[in-house]
Amino acid sequence: MLSNNRAKQSAIQWTSRRAVRTGATVSALAVVLAGAVVGPAWAVPSEVRKVHVEGQLIPVEQSHDAYRVTGGLVGTYNLRSERVSYAWTYWDTQIREMDGTASIRGCVDQNQNQSCDPAEPSGDLRFTFNRVASFDTGSGRLLEGTSTHQLSSDGRFSGGVLTTRDIPVHNGDGVVMTYQGDLEVTKPTGNSKRAD
After folding, report:
1. Angstrom distance (rounded) from CA 81 to CA 60
2. How many CA atoms lie less than 13 Å away from 111 in the CB half-sphere?
C-alpha cells in the first residue's frame, strides 16, 4: 500500500509540476505574442521615407548669416554658430576646419512651386555641421569649401544628411552654396489632415 500511495503522490506532484510548467509556458507565450502585436506600434510610431533634395543657398542682401533656400527645399538657411577647430597654411592658401550649427525654416517643395504648401513636410530643420574651406592668404577670399550637415530629429523630419559646396561669386566677395542629400520624412499620424 505504501508504494501505491507514493506512486499516487508522485503522480500528483508530477501532474502539478506539469500544470505549473504548462501554465508558465502559456503565460510566457501570451506575453511574447502581445509584445509582437503591440511592439511594432511602440517601435515605429509612423512611417519614415527618404526624400532626396538638391538646390542652392543664395545669400540674402545685407546679411552674412542668412541664405535663401531654393530647389528641393524652400525657405531660409541661418548660420547659428561656426568656429575654426583647426587651421594651417600651405603656400599661399589657408585651410580651415570648422564646425557649427545651422537651421533651415521651410519645407520639402514636393510640387516645385517655390513655396510651402500645407500638405508638404515643413518645420525648423536644425543641423550640426563640419566644414573644410580654403582661403587666399593675401586677400582672405574663399577659394572653395565643402561641408556635411547632420540633421537633428525634429517634427516631421527624423534625420538626414546634406552636403554643401561653397562657390565664390562676385570676384570672391560672395558665396553661393549648392546642397544635396537625403532627408528622412515622417508621414503624419492617421488623424492628421496633412498628407504627403
Report:
1. 17
2. 9
The string of pLDDT tens digits covering residues 49-93 is: 899 999 999 988 888 889 999 999 999 999 999 999 999 999 999
For the question of whether the overall pTM of this predicted structure is more than 0.85, the answer is no
- Structural element, H or E, at residue 35: helix 2-43
At 104-152, the pLDDT tens digits run 999 999 999 999 999 899 999 999 999 999 999 999 999 999 999 999 8
Could you tell me if 194 and 186 are in contact, meaning their C-beta atoms sit under 8 angstroms apart? no
Q: How confident is the model at residue 190 (pLDDT cuts 50, 70, 90)?
A: low
Q: Which helix (H) or strand (E) holds 62?
A: none
**What does the domain layout of the chain look like in residue ranges?**
1-43, 48-186
Q: For the beta carbon of residue 180, count every other beta carbon within 10 angstroms.
A: 15
Residue 126 main-chain phi, psi, to 5 deg: -110, 135
Q: Rounded distance, CA 194 to CA 185, Å?
A: 13
- Nearest Cα residue to 162 out of 55, 49, 48: 55
Q: Is 41 exposed, middle or buried (0-12, 13-18, 19+ CB in 10 A)?
A: exposed
